[in-house]
Design goal:
The complex is a heterodimer of chains A (400) and B (503). By secondary structure, chain A is an alpha/beta fold. Chain A is built from 13 helices and 11 strands. The chains are: A alpha/beta (400), B alpha+beta (503). The interface between A and B is large, with 44 and 45 residues.
Chain lengths: 400, 503
């Protein structure tokens, strides 16, 4: 394969302001349509802008939705955002890049602002997953990964992520208990988040004794099938002062890609796409992993979060199990991860997930996260892995 | 005073003539007096007809759906075996969710049974306003005599005690187990004993007349006290025989004799006749209304028109208006609409991910034939076929056969079967093939044959065996699965078994 380093052409420092962020409660929102959720998240986002915002200032919008054309059988794309909000005179682009769609939509919108094409833009992520039984949902049922002889529907997300868990256990002595602790931690964090789907604590024993889905993953190692939407407003640092005295800045972004067929992976104990995205984002932000104060990670499965600690450099390779054992990623720990509850407890409405992660970092870096506030958080990171490592997006935010 | 406050009828616009049916089935015999019958279109059924009739009845009565305290729906042709028809109609009409919503069925006698129950609720003071809907869309077997008669229609009656246009001043019943027509559980088409005379005399005539006689006796009135007769009409003529037997004047059966043009509308039939009477009748006119169900019996109701009938008459949609738009069908068009001629699905079967698609044209060679490409630059085994080497991006390959043996690199144990029929748990693994080059290449992934998951380990030696890999759309899929090889001593830890960093 072609190897390369940082592929960003411009050297000018990357800085785009986030001036508003809002989301729906995540959960089984049977009473809300896809459009209802978009409207609620949008209104919450507008309301969060300290000095208020004239909607006419919004010059373009991005929508992140993954399965719009799979379950809802609609292919309306950008119109799905423009129509319910009545924003019919601005360009709207839909981003579909697997579970990284929300973060990638922010990345694309920020790039447009950096390019000087627009000043103020809207990014919405939304996903309606529970209009079908959870066993029929994208993650449980669809062949997001191809499989040779069951091709292409046969390979499900728990299958391919489970194989990463097995390889990590074999190579580094990681245990199912280590994975379980990720779920226990994120459920605990979720109890502090009013927007979280699950707001109750669980124990390691409960995780280990839950029905198996794809060994080494049991039911409580998997995130729930979730409905939800989230929205953020981005603008230039100059323009941001008009809306707030406390903007949060996106200062680095990276996207990594890897093979689709799982048997073509170069490794089963890490995700090269994660490493590539993180490398790019850290370089752009001019920081090292050590400087990250708070992180929202893609814990679609418990093993995903644990391996991601290593890929992002939060701990040494192979030490993910030991790091969670030490309390590192807990609220109050060395580097709190998923204080929102993560995908595991907050929920994972696929296209909305990355945008909701940005909402959490927005609160954290402004000191508005209440009981789950990470003390003196200055630098925040969001991470989404899509497919089973086919795509990864890392965004880095700062309050300075 | 309890009685009818408003009425509404719905008759589908499609018709088929007896002549058209008999041209296809000349030996079917004849149902007396039927010229044509109403046929429900593809987008009509007993629920849509009932809603239309109910909206007309509420408009006629001048009451809002939210005022209705009880909703009764009577039909033998519900689109479900189990599930309330009343519930969907309640939702469509906007009747309160707190209202009583009742389903009556199993026999075409159900409409009058519903009306009698609703009246009892009103008289008992439990409710003020009820809505009774009777509709049917019964279907006959192709070429059967009943095919000429079974029609589609629905009637709704608003029932209350204020502004009553027709008081119900007496009821009587006669239950008759004699069964000539029935529909077994799970079947859509009506069956019958092939003895029309026996049905007419011991079934219909006996039940209808005995119920009528019982009612006259209760009321102490002679048949001549009634100006009109509205009965169930299995054919176009029997109603006259009933009038005669009950001592009503011959012209009493004229208005309600609708079967010749609409057919036997089952549960709706006696009410449709009643609507015709209410349209034409004057205050103080009296009518006998008698239902019938084969293997069920009859209910008879005595109805007296009030002064209100003149006030309310102009608000009603007349039967002439209800049946104005007519389209005659030929037999094939009719047969499609009643399900005698199956209509192919509008969309093809769901698209299979495998075998049925053009993709299989491209993929069969490697998926089934195990043809693989080996990179001539770096030796990486590329499977499935590629244009750029997965390891070095070279574009130069030679075709080889996929090695059949290898060692497990990683695996999971699938407890939720992704595709049927497969029994869980299924072990799914990624395997490095023996002698195959490459870091990314040289591997395949797939399911294992049924094994004890506990015996599977990273490094296990396996071989590919040809098996069925589930099926889709009834088409079996074929492919390869991994089968563990017997331990040879050093199989515990293969060269690639441990750290995947080596890969």
């Amino acid at each position: 394969m072609l190897e390369g380093g940082l592929k960003v052409a411009r050297q000018k420092s990357f800085k785009v302001a986030v001036v508003g962020a809002g989301m729906t409660k995540f959960g089984e929102l049977f009473d809300q349509s896809y459009e209802d959720m978009i409207v609620e998240a949008y209104r919450a986002c507008l309301k969060s802008v300290d000095k208020g915002i004239d909607e006419k200032d919004i010059q373009a919008a991005w929508l992140a939705t993954v399965q719009g054309s799979l379950i809802r059988r609609e292919l309306l794309s950008g119109t799905s955002l423009a129509e319910p909000l009545g924003l019919l005179s601005i360009p709207v682009t839909r981003i579909e890049n697997l579970c990284a769609s929300g973060s990638d939509a922010i990345r694309n919108a920020a790039c447009a602002v950096m390019a000087g094409l627009y000043e103020t833009v809207l990014v919405v992520g939304a996903e309606k997953m529970r209009d079908v039984p959870s066993r029929a949902s994208l993650v449980a049922n669809r062949g997001v990964m191809s499989h040779l002889w069951w091709h292409p529907r046969g390979a499900t997300a728990p299958m391919v992520f489970g194989q990463i868990g097995t390889a990590h256990m074999h190579a580094y002595g990681t245990t199912r208990e280590h994975f379980a602790k990720v779920a226990v931690k994120n459920h605990y964090h979720g109890t502090f988040n009013p927007h979280a789907f699950y707001r109750f604590e669980i124990t390691v024993e409960q995780v280990l004794n839950a029905p198996l889905v794809s060994w080494p993953l049991g039911l409580y190692d998997c995130c729930p099938t979730t409905d939800g939407a989230a929205a953020v407003i981005l603008t230039t640092p100059e323009r941001a002062r008009q809306y707030t005295d406390r903007p949060v800045y996106l200062i680095g972004t990276g996207l990594g890609i890897d093979v689709g067929h799982s048997h073509w992976r170069s490794t089963y104990t890490e995700w090269p796409a994660n490493q590539q995205a993180a490398k790019e984002a850290y370089a752009m932000a001019g920081i090292t992993p050590r400087e990250v104060d708070v992180a929202e990670l893609h814990d679609c499965f418990t093993c995903t979060e644990l391996v991601t600690y290593e890929d992002l450099g939060f701990c040494e390779k192979g030490r993910g199990g030991a790091w969670i054992e030490s309390g590192g990623p807990w609220l109050g720990g060395e580097k709190p991860c998923n204080v929102s509850g993560g995908l595991k407890a907050k929920g994972h409405p696929v296209g909305a997930t990355g945008v909701a992660q940005a909402c959490e970092i927005f609160l954290q870096l402004r000191g508005e996260a209440g009981q789950r506030q990470v003390a003196n958080a200055r630098i925040g990171l969001t991470h989404n892995i899509g497919g089973a490592g086919q795509v990864s997006c890392v965004n880095i935010y700062s309050n300075e | 005073m309890a009685g009818i406050v408003g009425y509404g009828a719905y008759v589908p616009g499609l018709r088929i003539s007896t002549k058209e049916i008999k041209a296809v089935w000349p030996a079917a015999g004849s149902v007396p007096g039927i010229k044509e019958k109403a046929v429900a279109d593809f987008d009509e059924d007993v629920i849509t007809m009932s809603v239309m009739a109910a909206e007309r009845a509420l408009a006629h009565a001048g009451v809002g759906a939210e005022e209705v305290d009880a909703l009764y729906v009577a039909t033998t042709s519900a689109p479900y075996e189990e599930k309330s028809v009343a519930a969907v109609i309640q939702t469509v009409l906007g009747v309160s969710a707190e209202a009583l919503a009742v389903d009556f069925g199993r026999t075409t006698r159900a409409g009058t049974a519903a009306l009698i129950n609703c009246l009892a609720q009103i008289k008992a003071g439990e409710i003020n306003l009820g809505l009774v809907i009777a509709g049917d869309n019964r279907l006959a077997r192709a070429g059967d005599l009943l095919e000429q008669s079974l029609g589609a229609a629905a009637v709704a009656l608003v029932v209350g005690k204020e502004k009553v246009i027709a008081e119900v001043f007496g009821t009587a019943s006669f239950t008759n187990e004699f069964t000539n027509q029935w529909r077994p559980y799970g079947e859509k088409l009506l069956r019958r004993h092939d003895d029309p005379r026996l049905e007419r005399e011991y079934g219909y005539q006996r039940a209808v007349v005995r119920a009528g006689q019982s009612l006259l006796a209760r009321l102490g009135l002679p048949g001549t006290a009634f100006h009109y007769l509205a009965t169930a009409e299995p054919d176009g003529r029997s109603i006259q025989g009933v009038a005669k037997a009950l001592g009503l004047p011959a012209e009493a059966a004229g208005l309600a004799n609708l079967a010749p043009f609409i057919g036997d509308t089952g549960t709706a039939s006696p009410f449709l006749g009643l609507v015709a009477v209410l349209e034409q009748g004057k205050p103080a006119d009296k009518a006998l209304v008698i239902s019938y169900g084969s293997g069920a019996g009859s209910d008879a109701l005595a109805v007296a028109l009030t002064e209100e009938i003149t006030v309310q008459k102009q608000r009603a949609l007349t039967l002439a208006e209800v049946t104005r738009e007519k389209v005659s069908l030929n037999y094939p068009a009719y047969a499609k609409r009643v399900g005698l001629l199956p209509v192919p699905p509008a969309l093809p079967d769901p698209i299979s991910g495998y075998l049925t698609q053009p993709g299989m044209l491209r993929d069969a060679e490697y998926l089934l034939g195990l043809s693989a490409l080996e990179c001539t630059e770096c030796g990486s085994l590329n499977y499935p076929h590629r244009d750029y080497c997965i390891d070095c991006r070279s574009q130069s390959f030679k075709q080889v056969k996929l090695p059949r043996r290898g060692r497990v690199v990683t695996y999971n144990v699938q407890y939720v079967s992704p595709i049927g029929p497969e029994e869980v748990p299924v072990v799914v693994c990624t395997v490095k093939l023996d002698g195959a080059g490459g870091v990314r290449g040289g591997k395949v992934s797939g399911a294992m044959v049924a094994v004890d998951p506990a015996q599977v380990k990273v490094g296990l030696s396996v071989e590919l065996v040809f098996r069925r890999c589930g099926e889709e759309l009834g088409l079996p899929k074929y492919g390869y699965k991994f089968k563990p090889l017997p331990e040879t001593g050093n199989a515990g830890r293969g060269a690639e078994g441990g750290a995947s960093k080596e890969l």
